[in-house]
Design goal:
Blueprint: H1 3-11, E1 13-17, E2 20-23, H2 35-50, E3 67-71, E4 75-79, E5 82-86, H3 101-113, E6 123-129, E7 135-138, E8 150-156, E9 159-163, E10 173-177, E11 182-185, E12 194-196, E13 211-217
The protein binds N-(carboxycarbonyl)-S-(naphthalen-2-ylmethyl)-L-cysteine and fe (iii) ion.
Fe (iii) ion (FE) is lined by residues 138, 140, 194.
């Protein structure tokens, strides 16, 4: 273990709350080559050929501004009937594409660094933001076991993340999430409200006008 590398990495780790930590530029660190974020994006491009990104409809009847797809045994969906995880993609009628090894390894490694040794995600929600896309404050609570963390990976254009508390009206703090940032959301932060402010118009060298976010979950 290289002590200089250890010191370097420390500067990239930012606690966000109990059980929650931001690993800045995690995709680009250590043995993960600079090419790793690019490798994730290549695997992502192959996935969305099978299960395309689509704008789902909330139970209240509103089309989401974020386009979504999934990979893994389970996928998160919303429609007039509600929010849930299911094994079949409602667009294709087939199982979601399997989780690429690149996705799985990165998520497990980040969870370990965040203090969760045995995290094995069975679902990865893929979010694609374009200019103006946002995610209003919400809790992630469609998973069965809230002791399991969620690992999130940001790729492409930057976004402002809002990190709140256990109530919708709790104060929020703003956190910039940029290309390659990975965060682990566990412990008592697992049920905190959170959201993403409308994406600014810009271009990223790898993703053009988009921001992608991968969230790894143990859903079932
Ligand atoms: C804090 N995605 O897909 S990732 C979501 O950037 C979602 O697309 C956002 O919220 C995005 O549900 C934020 C950061 C994140 C993800 C899950 C959390 C923060 C979280 C769960 C609990 C607490
Ligand atoms: Fe969420």
């Amino acid at each position: 273990m290289d002590l200089f590398a250890a010191t370097e990495n420390f500067a990239f780790q930012e606690p966000l709350g109990p059980g929650a930590i931001l690993l800045r530029k995690f995709c680009q660190q250590e043995e993960r080559a600079k090419a790793n974020a690019a490798a994730l994006l290549r695997d992502l491009a192959a996935l969305v050929e099978i299960s395309p990104l689509r704008h789902m409809v909330t139970p209240g009847g509103f089309e989401m501004s974020v386009a979504m797809s999934n990979c893994g045994a389970l996928g998160w969906v919303t429609d007039q009937a509600g929010y849930r995880y299911q094994a079949l993609d409602p667009v294709t009628g087939s199982p979601w594409p399997s989780m690429p090894q690149s996705f799985l390894e990165l998520a497990k490694r980040a969870a370990q660094v965040g203090g969760f040794e045995n995290f094995v995600p069975d679902a990865c929600l893929i979010n694609r933001y374009e200019v103006g896309s946002r995610l209003t404050l919400h809790q992630d609570k469609n998973e069965i076991d809230f002791m399991q963390p969620i690992v999130s990976v940001s790729l492409g254009l930057p976004a402002v993340f809002l990190f709140g508390g256990l109530e919708r009206t709790s104060p929020t703090r703003k956190v910039q999430l940029t290309h390659g940032d990975v965060a682990v959301w566990g412990g008592s932060s697992r049920l905190n409200y959170h959201g993403i402010l409308p994406l600014k118009d810009s271009l990223h060298e790898l993703t053009g006008p988009y921001r992608y976010n991968l969230t790894f979950r143990k859903a079932g």
